[in-house]
Write a structure and sequence with these properties.
It is a single chain. Helix content is 41%, strand content 18%. It has 776 residues and is an alpha/beta fold. It has three domains: 242 residues, Aldehyde Dehydrogenase, Chain A, domain 1 (3-Layer(aba) Sandwich), CATH 3.40.605.10; 191 residues, Aldehyde Dehydrogenase, Chain A, domain 2, CATH 3.40.309; 255 residues, Aldehyde Dehydrogenase, Chain A, domain 1, CATH 3.40.605. It has a ten-stranded mixed β-sheet, with helices on both faces. A six-stranded mixed β-sheet has the order 9-8-7-10-11-19, sandwiched between helices. The chain has a five-stranded parallel β-sheet with strand order 30-29-28-31-32, with helices on both faces. Helix 5 packs across helix 6 and helix 20 packs antiparallel against helix 22. The radius of gyration is 28 Å and the shape is globular.
């Protein structure tokens, strides 16, 4: 027999990893666990069973947290936080380093326990999850060391409630805990109900490292416990999980002032062009979909293949699927393990049964073990609108359609409410790097998939959430300005008296500014504006839903601004400043007359200075090449958010308008501004400056009227990508609740914070991480 025949006919024998150490650790706890609160494990009490999904065997009994348990964990975290922050970066770095070393020491135990609890193959736990968890603590030990020097104007947020899913139990823990404690916060972590065991082992590792009591607290339980954590007296919520639960958390935290990071679901496109290395693209799919049972929110589960190679590619893919090995997750020779729980198996089964009829289903003839196993599945010939092409399945199921041109590939890829990740496969680097930035995704992999690192920010756009974890941008998510700016109430000093306005014809009413033109209010209704001494200064239009719709539509058409160079945007901002400077006396007198003060000139000068500041930043707030440990680059690219609606501060009406406008348009966004309610005439004068400054139509739109009403309308508008409220903090609840509909970003801050440079620019951009491997 030839060597080739031997290789062709050779079967893989079993290569089981022993679970003796993990079972012994579980037995040492009597297979019953309480919570980890204040540096100690509580007594185990009534709860639920944690089962091995591959066999159904009992692993442990885990306690269901009560409201009192959550309160105790928060209290322990609150008591520990001031001293932990006061330790300083170097001392915290040494603790994180100790945790990283202990994760290395216990690597085998962690990997086996993860596969027992989750069902993923031991190769993935051993070679990906555990090393990446170690990497996060090493990386953030360095971040702790550097924080005081590199982020001197930032402070820890306080107590962080963290809720993690069951697909990467240990890695998600590290992803959240490491940056939180590195920056001086303390945490209350809630692991997934299905997979709590490596989190509880991490509690033991915290004890071994000598971590001060209360810095890390772990409470276990079902989804209701997660809701209790979200509603507890914490200062930040970091959630990874389903879009539906993320929306509920957004509503629950609306108006509370809690910082929020959401990393939610996805339906990530996997785009294969005709010039791709097809064999590599097939292996990428095997890694993305089947090695982890499709239980990855960023998995490229939506395959888009160029039409000319579709038949060939599907043939290669089916051949590879037929060679997959399904079996015991602790067997080092298997490819596909089990799903996490019978509930998930039932969900995947029902979704495929409901949607597969729209396409052609292929499942290789593999012998399936007993347990929570679902066969590797490929469904082709689907339409972009079919249910399985739009809904997250979270199982080993790949769905597919074809495209003809790169433009069509981009359109199909972006035809989803999600925006977590994407993969692009092409040997033509020009094509790959042309397509990648056009994809609505927080992470884009070129000729690769499922690459992660602590240095590279990860997170989504659209209904895949907001905020980033990892890198400097992730560090910012666990800090706040050291001196937050105060916020003024909507009724500022000097507001108009409650008096009837004389009739005013519409041609005497200060008009709105929409699409580069003056616009009458839709309802024809105007409001009188009075000086503090009771003199009538003029009338201003009262905007309504239709006026906002027109403004958002005009902003949506001005897409060329996002593609303009930073140099061009800088020139126009300088020009706006120049034209405002030429009218300093006029604007100063107008401000003094409206407010009854003599601060008008100082406010105009401050607005000019702010325009210069953001003109300077327009071509300098660049991205970075991240130092990831592989041959390649992870490029953090700053991209505009899109259309931003902003409520301007009620006081300092000109400066507040500029503070909302300048950073947004400097970064390539288009804005719909709702100016100061008591002093709107400053805005209706300012658009005359915009008209003479070569600003393209639709980049800046101004709609006057009731800020709370218009702000809430902006938050519900599906074509608005973010809402900023620099006005009355009492508006926050309505705006953030309304924004939960499509999970748009919100920013509620004081004027000084809004105009302070990097803080504003960070809110005016989204980080898109583009991975470009190269070499061997």
């Amino acid at each position: 027999m030839s060597i080739q025949n031997i290789f062709d006919s050779m079967d893989y024998g079993p290569a089981p990893e022993s679970d003796a150490e993990a079972q012994a650790w579980l037995e040492s706890h009597g297979r019953a666990f309480g919570h980890f609160i204040g540096g100690k494990f509580t007594q185990a009490s009534e709860g639920f069973e944690s089962l091995n999904p591959a066999t159904g065997a009992l692993l442990a009994n885990v306690t269901q947290a009560t409201e009192a348990d959550i309160a105790a964990a928060v209290e322990a975290a609150r008591a520990a936080q001031p001293a932990w922050a006061a330790l300083g970066g170097h001392a915290r770095a040494r603790y994180l380093y100790a945790l990283a070393r202990l994760l290395q020491k216990h690597a085998r135990l962690l990997a086996v326990l993860e596969s027992l609890d989750n069902g993923k193959p031991i190769r993935e736990s051993r070679d990906i999850d555990v090393p990446l968890a170690q990497r996060h603590f090493y990386y953030h030990a360095g971040m702790a060391q550097l924080m005081e020097a590199e982020l001197p104007d930032r402070a820890p947020i306080g107590i962080c409630g963290q809720i993690i899913p069951w697909n990467f139990p240990l890695l998600m823990l590290a992803w959240k805990v490491a940056p939180a404690i590195a920056t001086g916060n303390t945490v209350v972590l809630k692991p997934a109900e299905f997979t709590p065991l490596t989190a509880l082992l991490f509690g033991k590792i915290c004890q071994e490292a000598g971590l001060p009591a209360g810095v890390v607290n772990i409470v276990t339980g079902d989804g209701n416990v997660g809701r209790l954590v979200a509603r507890a007296e914490v200062d930040k919520i970091a959630f990874t999980g389903s879009t539906g639960v993320g929306r509920d958390i957004r509503k629950a935290t609306a108006g509370t002032g809690k910082a929020l990071t959401l990393e939610l679901g996805g339906k990530s496109p996997y785009i294969v062009f005709e010039d791709a290395d097809l064999d590599s693209a097939v292996e990428g799919l095997v890694d993305a979909i089947w090695f982890n049972q499709g239980q990855v929110c960023c998995a490229g589960s939506r395959l888009l293949v160029q039409e000319g190679i579709a038949e060939t590619f599907y043939g290669k893919l089916k051949e590879r699927m037929a060679a997959l090995r399904v079996g015991d997750p602790l067997d080092k020779s298997i490819d596909v393990g089990s799903l996490v729980d019978p509930v998930q198996l039932d969900t995947v089964t029902r979704m495929v049964e409901a949607g597969a009829g729209a396409g052609s289903l292929y499942q290789p003839p593999l012998e399936m073990p007993e347990g929570c196993y679902y066969p590797p599945t490929l469904i082709t010939d689907l339409a972009p609108s079919d249910m399985l092409m739009q809904e997250e399945i979270f199982g080993p199921v790949l769905v597919s359609t074809t495209f003809r041109t790169p433009a069509e590939a981009v359109a199909l890829a972006n035809n989803t409410r999600y925006g977590l990740a994407a993969s692009v496969w092409s040997e033509n680097v020009n094509l790959a790097l042309d397509v990648a930035p056009k994809l609505a995704a927080g992470v884009i992999w070129v000729n690769s998939t499922n690459l992660f690192d602590a240095a590279a920010g990860f997170g989504g756009v659209r209904e895949s959430g907001f905020g980033r974890e990892g890198g400097w941008e992730g560090l910012l998510a666990y800090t706040r300005p050291a001196k937050p700016a105060p916020r003024a109430a909507a009724t500022a000093p000097g507001a108009a008296p409650d008096a009837a306005a004389p009739d005013a014809p519409l041609d005497r009413t200060a008009k709105m500014y929409v699409g580069g033109k003056q616009a009458r209010p839709d309802g024809g209704y105007s409001r009188a504006i009075w000086s503090p001494k009771g003199a009538l200064l003029g009338h201003v239009g009262e905007g309504n839903r239709k006026d906002l719709r027109n403004a958002v539509e005009a902003a949506g058409k001005a897409t060329g601004w996002a593609g303009a160079t930073g140099h061009l945007r800088a020139q126009i901002l300088y020009f706006i400043a120049e034209n405002l400077s030429a009218r300093t006396g006029e604007f100063a007198a107008r401000l003094d007359g409206m407010t009854g003060t003599d601060a008008g000139k100082a406010e105009v000068e401050a607005a000019i200075d702010l325009l210069f500041t953001h003109a300077a930043w327009a071509d300098k707030f660049d991205g970075a090449a991240k130092g990831v440990p592989l041959r390649g680059l992870a490029l953090a690219v700053n991209r505009p958010v899109g259309v931003i609606g902003a409520l301007c501060p009620p006081d300092r009406p000109l400066l507040g308008l500029v503070a909302a406008m300048a950073p947004a348009i400097a970064m390539g966004n288009r804005v719909v501004l709702i100016p100061s309610e008591p002093y709107p005439l400053a805005a209706t004068d300012f658009y005359q400056v915009l008209e003479t400054s070569d600003l393209p139509a639709g980049v800046v739109n101004i709609v006057t009227g009731a800020q709370e009403v218009l702000g809430t309308e902006l938050a519900t508008h599906l074509d608005v990508d973010a809402v900023w409220n620099f006005s009355d903090p009492s508006f926050d609840t309505a705006i953030e609740t309304a924004a939960s509909g499509n999970l748009k970003r919100t920013w509620c801050a004081g004027l000084d914070t809004a105009g302070s440079g990097r803080e504003a620019l960070a809110h005016a951009t989204e980080i898109h991480t583009i991975w470009v491997p190269y070499g061997d």
